[in-house]
């Protein structure tokens, strides 16, 4: 029904201008985006695999990390393949239906990741500030509920905001100054008053980006106070290093999101927004497994155990043959 309403004034295809004004930059971006995407698939896939297979990683922290890895893979896959196609070929188009699918999925996963990062910060708060009660606080039912709330919350805001945006009459306008279908740019194409859509966008941004960021800062504020009370200098250093890595990724991710969504939809400052969007859709999914887990001793041990088990199993099979 939504598709039929929107089709009345919507084009069959959208032209994604992306970086077409800088043709010399496109081959470089293609190589970088492809490389980052492959590393993201391998890194996040590894995290998901070891978190599921190794019983030593069946903890709340790695449960949420596997959810984050699933989100990163899905978000990157919803955007990067189409981006690579447009960079490689002369045509910079995406079908109307393809744009709608990309729009709904990317918005859903982006909002979900914002909430999930806040959930992860609460998990770290409970582990560091309430170590004796940690297993009671972060019991399996609560972990599952928090993960489901993150996914369903992101889906809800995507269904509402995306539907309100896609039913706007575009009057044949089909040129999007971006590399994927994004809300502010589609609102900009509308040929009617979009004040309601912009207001809804700001409210959704506040609920799903600003509030979770506030919760993250509060959690890490408590963590910092708890760490400062640790008498061991080595213990404080390790705790601060872990927190600084997490906070850095959160700041980069949320910073780019807030910058993009808290600017007027009619704004002309899209160039910086495109590069920021490149960061959180291409670079961040690749960095997350490196920062959160691949530098983690538990994950390294789990990988070694997995490789040894597979190697021993392969050798045993050959021995029987």
Structure overview:
The chain is mainly alpha-helical and 321 residues long. It is built from eleven helices and three strands, in the order H-E-H-H-E-H-H-H-E-H-H-H-H-H. It has a three-stranded mixed beta sheet. Helix 2 (26-53) crosses helix 11 (297-320), helix 4 packs antiparallel against helix 6 (140-166) and helix 9 packs antiparallel against helix 10 (271-294). The chain is globular and about 65 Å long. Residues 1-8 have low confidence and may be disordered.
List keywords for this structure.
321 residues; mainly alpha; three-stranded mixed β-sheet; 11 helices; 3 strands; 77% helix; globular; disordered N terminus
- How far from one another are the termini? 60 Å
Mean pLDDT: 82
Percent range for β-strand residues: under 5%
- Series of secondary-structure elements, N-terminal to C-terminal: HEHHEHHHEHHHHH
The strand count comes to 3
> How many helices does DSSP assign?
11
Largest sheet: 3 strands, mixed
Q: Strands of the largest sheet, in order across it?
A: 2-1-3
Structure classification = mainly alpha
Question: How would you describe the shape?
Answer: globular
Supply Rg. Answer: 22 Å
Helix content: over 70%
**Unreliable segments of 5+ consecutive residues:** 1-8
Summarize the structure.
With 321 residues, this protein is mainly α.
């Amino acid at each position: 029904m939504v598709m039929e309403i929107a089709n009345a004034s919507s084009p069959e295809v959208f032209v994604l201008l992306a970086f077409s004004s800088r043709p010399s930059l496109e081959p470089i971006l293609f190589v970088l985006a492809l490389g980052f995407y492959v590393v993201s698939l391998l890194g996040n896939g590894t995290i998901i695999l070891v978190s599921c297979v190794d019983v030593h990683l069946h903890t709340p922290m790695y449960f949420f990390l596997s959810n984050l890895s699933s989100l990163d893979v899905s978000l990157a896959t919803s955007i990067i393949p189409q981006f690579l196609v447009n960079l490689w070929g002369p045509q910079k188009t995406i079908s109307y239906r393809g744009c709608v699918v990309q729009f709904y999925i990317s918005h859903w996963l982006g909002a979900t990741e914002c909430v999930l990062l806040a959930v992860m910060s609460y998990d770290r708060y409970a582990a560091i500030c309430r170590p004796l009660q940690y297993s009671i606080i972060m019991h399996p039912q609560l972990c599952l509920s928090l993960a489901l709330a993150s996914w369903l919350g992101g889906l809800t805001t995507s269904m509402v905001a995306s539907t309100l945006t896609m039913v706007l009459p575009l009057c044949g306008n089909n040129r999007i100054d971006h590399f994927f279908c994004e809300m502010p740019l589609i609102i900009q194409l509308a040929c009617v008053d979009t004040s309601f859509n912009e207001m809804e966008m700001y409210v959704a941004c506040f609920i799903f980006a600003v509030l979770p960021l506030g919760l993250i800062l509060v959690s890490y504020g408590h963590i910092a106070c708890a760490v400062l009370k640790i008498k061991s200098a080595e213990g404080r250093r390790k705790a601060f290093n872990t927190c600084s890595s997490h906070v850095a990724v959160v700041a980069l991710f949320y910073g780019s999101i807030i910058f993009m969504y808290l600017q007027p939809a009619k704004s002309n400052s899209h160039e910086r927004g495109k590069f920021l969007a490149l960061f959180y859709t291409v670079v961040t999914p690749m960095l997350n497994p490196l920062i959160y887990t691949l530098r983690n001793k538990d994950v390294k041990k789990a990988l070694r155990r997995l490789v040894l088990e597979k190697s021993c199993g392969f050798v045993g099979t050959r021995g029987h043959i």
